[in-house]
Design goal:
- It is a single chain.
- It is built from two helices and five strands, in the order H-E-E-E-E-E-H.
- It has 103 residues and is α+β, with helices and mostly antiparallel strands.
- The protein has a single domain, classed as Aspartate Aminotransferase, domain 1.
- Helix 1 crosses helix 2.
- The radius of gyration is 13 Å and the shape is globular.
- The protein starts with a helix and ends with a helix.
- The model has no long low-confidence stretch (mean pLDDT 93).
Length: 103
Amino acid sequence: MLAHARALIQQADPEVVEEWKWRGVPVWSHAGMICTGETYKAVVKLTFAKGAALNDPAGLFNSSLDGNTRRAIDLREGETIDEEALKSLVRAAVALNKSRAKS
């Protein structure tokens, strides 16, 4: 599941930088952090650093909904990912990072 998510993130933004931090957690960045990919026993959690500021018309965010900043997507084994919606979220996160970098 994480490998599939990684491929979609890279397709959405070919300029994305992937680093491994915090004991093996992948972190994707472009003009700032986009998201992390934590692996747990039952889910892969894609946590968007500024997810609360992103429009999510497909309703992908299903975790970490309480805070004012982050939002996450819990992906379970065998689930189908709305690939275009995930790519749109990644592109929106990059656009938000770029707009904040200019300020």
